[in-house]
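Quarterly update, task 2.4: S-adenosylmethionine-bound model.
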Amino acid sequence: MVERRDPHLEHFPAGFFDRADEADDAVFYAPERFVTHLDAGAIRAVGELYAELGLDGAVLDLCSSWVSHFAQRPQRLVIVGMNEAELAANPMADEWRLHDLNADPALPFGDSMFDAATCCVSVDYLTRPLAVFAEVARVLRPGGVFVCTFSNRCFPTKAIRGWLSTDDGGRAAIVRRYFELTDGFDAPVAQQRETSWFGDPLFAVSARRTTGVG
Ligand SMILES: C[S@@+](CC[C@H](N)C(=O)[O-])C[C@H]1O[C@@H](n2cnc3c(N)ncnc32)[C@H](O)[C@@H]1O
């Protein structure tokens, strides 16, 4: 029998994916939070980045809530998250699914169904990110882009310890590593986007699904 090592244990230090609150995520996300998790300047920067990357067609927004930060609504938006009322209230969404990615990283979608995928200010809550990134690679069409955006704040009890133990540059390096360790993505690009100097900073790491050519 071939023994398969969990890549999370293999590539990250012990305790990296632990959280202060290890209770079921459904408990923490049960209360509705009709708030924004970024200020207006950072939200605008997310929309500008999505437009610059050409996000359109069928788009999957992971860890979503009542607002997805597209400057222009994509042709079809499917959102996945933890709070039913928030998801149902998202005016850009064509379809929503209540789905705990930590309990089950498998995405309930077919192969190559999406032109793009997004995860805004939430990658820090994933306890099995490599499994989730592998699933995103599966559901993206070749050439489709996955973009993770984040700032410098979070729900600290639900963020993984590795995220909390480093700084902005370290967090970008973590997300880069997730992409690099996942089969099916080209080299990731990390960047800091322009926001107002006194407001929330906005960082992004994105990569395209390999086309398999060359
Ligand atoms: C800080 S909010 C960000 C919401 C939204 N992406 C935004 O930009 O405003 C974190 C989101 O991650 C989602 N989330 C947290 N843990 C999750 C999990 N285990 N599975 C799926 N979604 C999760 C929650 O539903 C919550 O809406």
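Highlight for this quarter: The pocket of S-adenosylmethionine is lined by residues 25, 29, 37, 63-65, 67, 81-83, 100-102, 120-122, 125 (CB under 6 Å).
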